[in-house]
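For the sake of clarity, the format in which proteins appear in this thesis is described at this point. The record quoted next illustrates the convention:

___
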Amino acid sequence: MVELWISLIRNAACVLKSLLPAEYTMMQPLMAFPFPLFWSGGGAGKLEMFTGLEGLIGVLQLAGAGFNLCKGAKGLAGGVVMAEYIVRWRNALAEYDMGVEGKARGVAALSVVLKRQDAANNRRIIAGICQLVIGTGLICLTCFSWKLVGIMTTATAVAILEVALAVLLTIGVTGVLRMWAISNKVQRLQQKPPAEAPPDADVVELVAPRSGSDMGGKWEPDVRVPPTVATLRTWKACLASRRLSRVVLWKTNQAIGQAAKKQAVLDAFLISLNVAAFVGYGTIPLDVFFPQRSLLTTWLPPGPTAWWGNFVGDVAWTIEPITVFLAPYLVLRRAQPSKTKTS
């Protein structure tokens, strides 16, 4: 929550910086950094003064850098540890004899679960690396706000940030498409009688955590638990049961699938804001490195000096935290189990 507020205030301040005339008090030069740093391009001359608004933006950018670095390090470290657990489970599964009748089906079912967890963990690791890159880039932007680095260094940092943001956008888009597909599957299965509903891992993954049911925990093995023979037999018994997805699905309301679809729409809107920011901020390195050849410099007057792309990115990232704050009112995050009385 604190991170969202900082993001909102920081980007709103950047929007104000683009809109306010130079006559305003907060737009007047206030102070210079007390001493030059080793990457600021020298140290003999006096550093350029920055405004009060730029000073505030720099502080908030530094706070954002701290949040991203901490989240990135946590995600990367946790992903590496989880990857070791998944490998251990796979090795144990390869050596475990599930019996003549249930071996093929049990191995296949558990392999699907582990494959899905492995894919999610890989996304976690990649996202952690991207957050580390973004955090480092925000430190450079802090130095730019405080007039410690030049435009070439800043444009290079923004170009690297664009790569990390592109990777995160790709992960986000695939996640939204998958959520939309699963929510449609839930609604289709809801129209069938329980006896005809096949056990579906995706359906249980979506429905169980939102229904107050503990079936989700039984369906997804906790890979942090050592894969003993007893635990493997437990997961095999759960995965072999055709009643699992029926029990979870028919003890919940159809609203779960609808809520998941609303969440997918909301996530798609947030991704569209980040796409706008990606395109907007991307004009900065293009205008700096290719001022004559960049088509983007001619889209809006007066050309590259306007930095209109930066303004678009700031506006998009101002709207994003506001949307997240309003999300509980826009999406039914948790649907309660239906309480219909059956004879």
